[in-house]
Amino acid sequence: MTEQNAHQVADWNGQSGEYWAANQARLDAMMAVFGRAAIEAAAPVTDERVLDVGCGAGASSLDLAARVGAGGYVLGVDISEPLIDRARALAPQDTPVLFRVADASSTELPEGAFDILFSRFGVMFFEDPTGAFAHMRRALRPGGRVAFVCWRGVAENDWVRLPMGAIKDIVPLPAPPGPEAPGPFSFGDRGRVMRILTAAGFTDITITPFDASIPFGEGKTRDAAIDDAVRMAFEGGPLSLVLADQPDDIRARAWAAARAAFAGLAGERSVMINGAAWIVMARNPAS
Ligand SMILES: C[S@@+](CC[C@H](N)C(=O)[O-])C[C@H]1O[C@@H](n2cnc3c(N)ncnc32)[C@H](O)[C@@H]1O
After folding, report:
1. What is the pLDDT of residues 197-208, one digit of tens each?
2. Does residue 140 sit within a domain?
3. Lower Cβ count inside 10 Å, N or C end of the chain?
């Protein structure tokens, strides 16, 4: 691995990687509708070759492999060893998919070898996104296409906006990351995504909003589902670090406040929370 993205490599092999591996089935259920929308945009057909960037535990890679069939293949690349281990364990035998622990922004990739560059929430973590996309573009055949899904901004994503707003008077929140800092919301600005892809050499770029309700909490009862939603919010994503070193009484107050914020949302044995994403498509020029 390179020096670049060292912080992300540490996090996805540490706290975030462990959280995603431990909650893999839950997170796959939450992300499924977004992944399906991006796959529809990619429109893979039989025999195509797909690079799945930041593939995590591989759910999207397996869906893509089912679409391209035995005559095609999918290469899933991710910096996280625990998630690639999980992906390899979950992949049925004879599926045309390979998983590699590697930094997609710098790993050696065969030139012009892929028809599609795909990602489900795996491209927002590069320190140098333009360099990363330029590198990955060289692995696409001339005329090859890009399709990925990424989050819009925090303000539009209730699964983080609501709990953050609920606890802001209980525990000090860190300053928001800079607009260019790698992280889940770093592609929230449509203009920035357009600039990155243009500078990386892509054409025919379209960036379309896609909204869906996420089953954030689940449980046998409504109360259990709300507690589960609070746990998901506090253990993963931006809030996990905010509460990490707080005393028990602060954590309890924060829990109660987030619980109250989630209690008003729809769902019977779940908590359905709005998620706001972009579906991004682009093309590698034909020559
Ligand atoms: C939010 S998770 C999404 C995982 C998976 N695509 C999914 O939808 O379940 C982001 C993923 O991007 C991976 N990632 C971050 N930076 C990366 C890089 N430079 N190269 C490859 N993978 C990276 C992380 O390890 C993590 O698995």
Report:
1. 999 999 999 999
2. yes
3. C
Split at pLDDT 50, 70, 90, the class of 2 is low
| 32 found inside a domain | yes
> What pLDDT, on the 0 to 100 scale, is given for residue 177?
84
Structure tokens at 208: 């379309």
Question: Ligand 1 pocket test: which of 121, 128, 185 has the largest number of ligand atoms within 8 Å of its C-beta?
Answer: 121
| Cβ 79 under 6 angstroms from ligand 1 | yes
pLDDT at 242: 85
* Total-model pTM: 0.95
Catalogue the E-assigned strands of 102-250.
Answer: 114-120, 140-151, 203-218
- Domain containing residue 142: 3-154+174-213+275-283
Question: Residue 124 in contact with residue 184, Cβ under 8 Å?
Answer: yes
With a 6 Å cutoff on the Cβ, whether 125 touches ligand 1 is: yes
Kindly state the helix (H) or strand (E) to which residue 161 belongs, with its residue range. Answer: helix 158-167
User: How far apart are the C-alpha atoms of 182 and 150, rounded to whole Å?
Assistant: 12
Q: Is 54 in the pocket of ligand 1 (CB under 6 A)?
A: yes
Residues contacting residue 86 through CB under 8 Å, at least 6 positions apart: 21, 24, 57, 58
Q: H-helix or E-strand containing 278?
A: strand 270-283
Residue 99 beta carbon below 6 angstroms from any ligand 1 atom: no
Could you read off the pLDDT of 183-192 as tens digits, one per residue?
999 999 999 9
- The CATH number linked to 44 is 3.40.50.150
Domain count, the chain: 1
Which residue, by CA, sits nearest to atom 19 of ligand 1?
103
Ligand 1 in reach of 8 Cβ (< 6 A) = yes
